[in-house]
Specification:
With about 375 residues, this protein is an alpha/beta fold. The chain has 13 helices and twelve strands.
């Protein structure tokens, strides 16, 4: 049996969608379907099933067992290939790794390009994802290493190497005197008793640094973007601590939250938000998924979040809170039934999304705003929001 059949089956199982898998593999969907049928015929078992009226694929009991064995086969084949190539003293094969979205450009330019030039026979499987997903994929042995920009949730389980310092900047209103000298490097102790705002990328690093110096930082506001953090301090409300990282894309719902935070500022309460986020990797964080899928009321979500606060959980809470304040329509690959307990309306495409937006009746007086780069756009108003 062709090893590519096993690898492609794994991709189908991980994406849960033939269309998504075929795009990811650059393989025509009919050819991919034929490979799955070939595997089922060869092994005499149904591996994948599709619920009536739904595009999402699920594995049968046999399919779950086959997936585990297929991963073992592929790992064995890759190890064998590397072992045989070692006799020629020529490094080759495939490196599977992930990078925190905020650091992807830095990693590619600083590490990946020089490495690829030095070892042209090595190919790469590369994805952007949150730290929680990175650690999960390493534990599952589906990634060889991860380049992260935040502390690992379970550092005792992994070998970690620090590659660079992370620089942060304190930003505050010139009308507010916190006794800070802009010409000097800021120490964690100087933040004690000062209300602080930070973004999600530096929250855990900032808190860890302050705890090392014997105090818990007074974090009043956690922003999803640097621009939102800066808006917090414009009126002298405190100090914003921001990192110099870039903006993630919509590889999963967790990462698309940056666009959500920006677009929410453009719409009046009760207005309509249509957000396009493909999310081929689903929610991207188990706590984010739990907030959206498991709880039926905002009170339940808030109680769970206060009892066990995580960044992923807060991101899920943010999405459900947006659906409470606005008519929130999400164009995504995530299965519709995953949002049954939230007020988030799922659409398969823009045509369906616009139909949902007009369901309450078309108002010719309404304003419409487009944000093609939602995660990178901070709205500035010359009039009231839409």
């Amino acid at each position: 049996m062709d090893f590519d059949f096993y690898r492609n089956f794994i991709t189908v199982a991980e994406t849960g969608n033939l269309t998504t898998a075929s795009k990811k593999l650059s393989l025509a969907q009919p050819a991919l379907s034929a490979q799955i049928k070939t595997l089922e015929h060869y092994y005499g078992a149904k591996l994948i099933q599709t619920a009536r009226g739904k595009r999402q694929l699920t594995l049968t009991e046999a399919g779950e067992a086959f997936l585990s064995k297929a991963r073992q086969i592929c790992r064995t084949e890759e190890t064998l290939l590397l072992d045989m190539q070692s006799f020629t003293k020529k490094a080759s094969g495939t490196l599977r790794f992930s990078v925190s979205p905020a650091k992807s450009t830095f990693f590619i330019n600083t590490y990946l390009r020089p490495f690829a030039a030095a070892y042209p026979e090595i190919s790469f499987q590369f994805r952007e994802e949150a730290v929680s997903a990175q650690t999960r994929h390493i534990a599952e042995n589906s990634s060889d290493f991860a380049f992260a920009n935040a502390p690992l949730p379970s550092p005792q389980l992994f070998a970690a190497h620090k590659t660079q310092k992370e620089y942060f900047y304190a930003v505050y209103s010139p009308q507010t005197d916190y006794g800070l000298d802009p010409r000097q490097t800021l120490t964690p102790q100087q933040l004690q008793n000062i209300p602080v705002c930070c973004n999600f990328g530096c929250y855990s690093l900032l808190r860890k640094a302050c705890l090392k110096h014997g105090f818990t930082p007074n974090i009043r506001f956690i922003a999803t973007t640097n621009t939102a953090a800066l808006a917090f301090v414009q009126d002298g409300s405190g100090v914003a601590i921001v990192s110099a990282g870039g903006a993630p894309k919509d590889i999963n719902l967790y990462q698309s939250s940056k666009a959500l935070a920006n677009v929410s500022q453009m719409v009046k309460p009760g207005g309509t938000i249509v957000m396009m986020a493909e999310c081929p990797e689903g929610f991207g964080d188990p706590d984010c998924a739990r907030q959206i899928t498991e709880f039926k009321t905002m009170a339940e979500r808030e109680t769970a979040l206060r009892a066990n606060f995580t960044i992923g959980g807060f991101m899920g809470y943010l999405f459900t809170l947006t659906a409470e304040r606005f008519r929130f329509i999400l164009v995504s690959q995530i299965p519709r039934e995953q949002f049954a307990n939230a007020k988030i309306l799922l659409a398969a495409g823009m045509e369906e999304a616009l139909a949902l937006a007009d369901a309450g009746g078309y108002d010719p007086r309404r304003s419409i705003a487009l944000m093609p780069e939602g995660s990178k756009t901070m709205p500035k108003f010359t009039d009231a929001p839409c």
